[in-house]
Amino acid sequence: IKTDFEVIVTFDWYSYARVILPNTYSRAVCGLCGNADGDPQDDFALPDGQQVADAIQFADSWKVADVPGCGAGCTEDCKVCTEAEKRAYRGDKHCGLLVKKRGPFAACHSAIDPAPYFDDCLFDTCLYEGHQETVCRSLSAYVTACQSQGIRIKPWRTVAFCSLVCPPNQHYELCGPTCPATCRGQEAAEECEEAKFCAEGCFCDQGFLLSGDRCVPLSQCGCWHQERYYQAGEEFFACPRCSERCVCKGDGVVECQPAGCGADEVCGVQDGVRGCYPQDCGRCQVLGAVSYSTFDGRPLRFAGTCAYTLAAVEDAGLEDPLVPFVVEMEKENNQEAPAIRRLLVTVHGVTLGMARGTQWEVDGEQHLLPLTLAEGAVTVTQEGTHRVLQVQGGPKLLYDGQNYVVLTVPSTYRSRTKGLCGDFNGDASNDLTTPQELGAAWGTLTPTCTHGSPPPTCSSDTPGPCGVLAEATGPFAGCHRVVAPQEYVAGCLQEQCGREDAAALCRSLQAYAAACQAAGGELQEWRAAAKCPLSCPPNSRYELCARSCDYACAGLSADTRCTDKCFEGCRCDEGFLFNGAECVPAGSCGC
């Protein structure tokens, strides 16, 4: 980003950001980057101007928002590498390449001191136990700084060291143009001044032009419409009220038609895209072994032990904007407490399966999390103790790996769903409720399973230990404003009906905790008083607000998308990362 007053901001989409100012801003700026007065000794200034020595105190003073699951710094069991441990990464195969006197970066040493980059590289690489991607990003940061000064860098990447894999129709260049040819440039003057320096990266092959983030031949270039560029085939709303929908045809032609949002939709912007989005959503829940709640809010008491369609939406043809899907649930053959044995989700041509205690399966093959499928339309992440599956424009499923499932669908799916979750038509009275009806309509009966008989109904007059969910001053009080507890209290009582089951109680309380955090509620510590400790695997610890995908091996090499919520669960210890199944030393992460 470049302004007409010569402030430049750059970002590599991962961890390297720069703010470049003209000298006229000296002593006129503040923040983490300091005051730009040429003296590094006075950079640790708080917003009130007070000087401090502690880096965390200084950095935390410039915090602009609280992000769930994030803290000011490491507070316990903090891993700090010794100089002896860092020594292993001083050689040419790691950070030493930065300071090598006759190395590929030598021409830059006199202009930009490599020492700070070298120290940072050693710190990060040692912490991540030599993971090559960490080394590559440190070296790439120095390359960017040098090339921005017009200094030529010698080749430093090899097939075996920091090789850069480019997308289709692109190739790597050490010194490529800063203003590459684009499709937009064929229609209007580029707002790009060719710099005196070059930059390394992926560039379009001969005969291809940059179209957004892809390289295409000229014949597949998009359209220039109302001062914006759109890729070929892209559909978009051209006005703020969504009253006109356009599509970019071939040869740069834009065709527009009158449009509008549906009764359950609102015109707005989500993830940077203007469109018609659902105003609300339907939520179906499996609250325990025998307790359910339909999209329309009708409670079900069902002890079936077969396989059932939880929810499904059929494909209605090419003109249907809804994403069709099927969610199936297989129960264990235990009449007293038929727990979930496996969930199956079929969407966008793939079937994802999750059995208790195992990895996700895609079309029968086991996969580690996080998962991205169908060109980004389907994502699966680990959030605390929960697995979260999201489909763009379609359903979202949260599963705790045991007995709690919450399935949400946008309001555009009204009257289109079928299954145990009901038809989502706003009328709870027509949802099936008896075991015979539910089993016959949505179950698959086999000789080894049964649809069961109606479980006994338990009184809610004396909620007992389940009552903690509704206590006005209890640990769940901060949840009441976003998720009413009554339904969960009833489900908890049903799970306890006729027996005292401590494990079932903990699962019921955990279900409400998950619903609370998914809705953005303020959950307090509850496990100690309820005697529901969470056992964490080796090299991890319990946290009330954990975001597992922030500390995943996949985050070292690729962009991983977490949800915007945090969930209680186990978080890897300092120096360990989640590899999709367990916490491992960062140096043991895969590819």
TrEMBL record:
InterPro entries given in the database record: Alpha-tectorin, Ser_inhib-like_sf, TIL_dom, TILa_dom, VWF/SSPO/ZAN-like_Cys-rich_dom, VWF_type-D
Sequence ranges assigned to domain VWFD in this UniProt record: 1-71, 282-459
Entries under PROSITE patterns matching the protein: VWFD (PS51233)
GO annotations of cellular component type: extracellular matrix; extracellular region; membrane
GO molecular function, one term: extracellular matrix structural constituent
SMART domains xref list: C8, VWD
Keywords from the UniProt entry: Disulfide bond, Glycoprotein, Membrane, Repeat, Secreted, Signal
Name the UniProt record assigns to this protein: FCGBP protein
